[in-house]
Amino acid sequence: MKRLLLALAAAAAASASAQSTSSVTLFGVADVSVAHLSTSGKNVTGLANGGNASSRLGFRGVEDLGGGLKAGFWLEGGINVDDGGSGFKFDRRSTVSLLGDFGELRLGRDKTPTYLNLETFHAFGDTGMGGINGHSLISGSAAGTAEGSSPKRMSNGISYLLPKMGGLYGQLSHGFGEEAGSNRLKSATGMRLGYASGPLDVAVGYGITRGGTAADGVNYKTMNVGASYKLGGFTPMLLIASERGNGARVDLYSVGLKMALGNGELRAAYTQYEDKKSDNDSQRLALGYGYKLSKRTELYGAVARLSNDGQAARKLASSLSPTPAKGKDITGYEVGIRHTF
Description:
The structure is a single chain. By secondary structure, the chain is mostly beta strands. Helix content is 8%, strand content 55%. It has two helices and 17 strands. Strands 1-3-4-5-6-7-8-9-10-11-12-13-14-15-16-17 form a 16-stranded antiparallel β-barrel. A hairpin with a 4-residue loop joins strand 15 (282-292) and strand 16 (297-308). The protein is globular. The termini are far apart.
């Protein structure tokens, strides 16, 4: 009996020690707004999901392996607050990592390096009425690609992230296409290198997505550069991007501003989309404000107008947004609440 008690005590001590060196966190965002959009005689009013930040549910954890080495996982999926959705999967991120003084080795589905610049250096990020909607500028369903000519995320990926080195940061990623008979089709490769110190943050990104067929492949290439500089309560932002492939080229230019105002933040952005092979250009102006009720809860409102030229039919980033007729404008506004947990 004495030996049994000693064994149980040792097991309990070992379990407590293990728990003290590892952690698992449940987190998420619940964001919904009342929105109205109108375009070429069509109007729609209703609830929009993720007007300020994408609604999501996730689990993440880290275990200390000793010797400066850690293991981590991140499982995150999108949720629909407006209608509850029809299913759940970890489509936003599903990764496992090894972390140490060398940096981080990350395996699984994650955001592409070039997409991170689009989110970081735009006043509205990529959600809601003002969202930049700057990925896959050539085509959201480019033939032979997994998720468009320049997707938000890549599956079956391996990424290496630099360790902290002053203000320098960077990432190199490759996603396998996993197509029989072709090592490149539906694959994606990207990199991002940046510097953040004090008020300045600047980064450049470059990526290649392989489409077409195994016999006749097409490389869709995207490059972008973004910068922001905090001046007291003001943060001006600049983003330039270009996407090329399959005889097409679309450039993006965006200027934005975040400004502290009262117990919240004013956001403004102007974005120009230029189709270099035709006259299918677009321009979008967006203005919004977020009022902080607490560190985790925010009331927000936004209004945006997108003008399409020629045969362009770009739409706003709102989840409720209809696709306008070619060459027609679209206007929208929303008022919503975002809660993080």
